[in-house]
Amino acid sequence: MCLSGCKMEALKPSVPGQALRFMRKRFPIALPAFAWPLLVCLVVPWVQAPLGARPGQPIKPIKTWSALASWYGPHFQGRKTASGQPYDMFAATAAHAWLPFGSLIRIVNIHTGHSQLVRINDRGPFQDDRELDVSFLVASRVGLLGRGVGLVRIELLEEPQRP
Known about the structure:
Radius of gyration: 29 Å
Distance between the termini: 83 Å
Mean pLDDT: 81
Shape: elongated
CATH architecture of the largest domain: Beta Barrel
Number of strands: 6
CATH topology of the largest domain: Barwin-like endoglucanases
C-alpha cells in the first residue's frame, strides 16, 4: 500500500513551466512574503542600532563629580527655558549653571543607585548649595521626589560640537 509516495507523485508537475503555476495555485501568497523574514535575519545582525537603543556597555564618562540636585515641576510647565525650549516636566532634561546646552549627562542617586540620562536645556539652579535642577520625570526615576533634594553623581557623557 502506497500512502505518501503515490500521492506526491500525483502532485508533481511534469513540465517545468507547470511548477510555477502549481506553486501559485497551492500558495497564493507571493514568494517575497516568505523571503523577507529570511532577509531580515541575514541583514539585521550587520545593521548598527542607534546609541540609545543599545543597552550593552555603558558609555564611559568624560568627567564625574558629586553634587546636590533638586527638581522643578508643574509651576514651570510650558514656560521657556534659557535655551528657548518650553519646559516639559515629563522630559528627561535638567538645568545646570555652566554645562553647555545639549550636554548629555547621567545622573545617579548615590543612595539608591538609580540612574537616568538627561539633556541640559536650562540654566540654574538658583540656590547656593545646589548644582543641578532636574525635571519631574528625572526626579521620579532617580528618587528625588520625596525629599526634593538629594546627593547625586553627575557623569558628563557628551558635550555638543561647537561650530
